[in-house]
Each structure stands twice: as C-alpha cells, then as structure tokens.
Amino acid sequence: MPKLVHSSDRTDFEEFVEHASPSLLHTAWLLTGQVDASRELVQAALVKTYVAWSRVRPGEALAYARRVLVNHHTDTWRRRRRETRLEDMPESPGPDRALETVEERREIVRLLALLPKQQRTVVVLRYYADLSEAAVADLLGISTGSVKSAASRGLARLRAELGEPASVTDLNDRRRQA
Fold first, then answer.
1. What are the tens digits of pLDDT across the range 42-92?
2. For the chain, what are the domain ranges?
3. How many distinct helices (H) and strands (E) make up the chain?
4. Is 33 helix (H, G, I), strand (E, B) or coil?
5. Which of 5, 40, 69, 125 could link 9 by a cystine bridge, Cβ 3.0 to 4.6 Å?
6. Which fold has domain 98-178?
7. Phi/psi of residue 95, each to 5°?
C-alpha cells in the first residue's frame, strides 16, 4: 500500500504539477499523436510520480516524471503492439513552445507518426524536449550510440519526407522559433 503524502509534500507536488504539466503534455502529445491519449499518459505519469513523491529528488522531479511518462508509453505500446495514428489535433497550442499554426502542428505530428516508435521517441525527447543524448539514453535505458543512430535515422526519414536537406541545427532553430 502506498504511503500517504504529507500536506507540505502535497503542496510541493501541486506546484510541480502546475509547472510541469504543459511540458509533459506536449511531450506526451508528440509521442502519442492524440490529444486524449496524451492527457491519459500525463495523468498516469503524474499519479505514479505522486505515489513516489517522497523519493523524488527536488531538482529532478521533471526528469523523473518524464521518465515515468516515457516508460508508461512504452509499456502501453508493447501491450498493444501497434502504433496509434493521429485522429484529432488540439486547436489551441500549449503555453510553452507553441507552434505558429495548426497546419504546422498537423504536419509535424503526421511526420512523427511515420517514424518507428524508438526513432520517434528519440527525436521528440532530443529535439522537442531538448534533452542531451546522454539524458535520452538514460531515460530510455539504451546506449548513447543507439540514441545517435535512432536520431540520425529519424531525422533522415523526416528530411526525405519533407524533400529538403534539413540539418539538426535547422530543426532546433525551427523548434526554438515556435
């Protein structure tokens, strides 16, 4: 049975949820490609984070919650053994790193949905969540070389789909401008 969280911890957690939810929701939406699935994924990650809150280091709470989110997504995907395609898009951008137009968001999610699961996860964590290769490797439990390989292949596929030779720097610049 999980331990009850003290009221001061609960306040800290509520502040964490308010601060981290937009980032987690954005990451989840990019991973799943569906609004409802991303909300459910964030909710599940926050519940698991809440249960473990007393063990979470204060400066690493977002990284912990993101890891829980990615692990839960991976577990769900493994159970289903199929990828979910995008059906609906949110009409209003999230408060952080909002993209300029609905059409751009649709195109990005459509392109990400073409990538295999690991490549999509690496590209999202590396270039949209702005994690280092080492952080992505640690989060996914794979080697740094696997992260580099998945990112390279994923970006190559995205470049091919776009029909333009875009570099990693170009994608980072696009994301930062959004």
1. 999 999 999 999 898 878 999 999 999 998 888 876 666 544 454 555 555
2. 1-84, 98-178
3. 8, 0
4. coil
5. 5
6. Arc Repressor Mutant, subunit A (1.10.10)
7. -70, -20
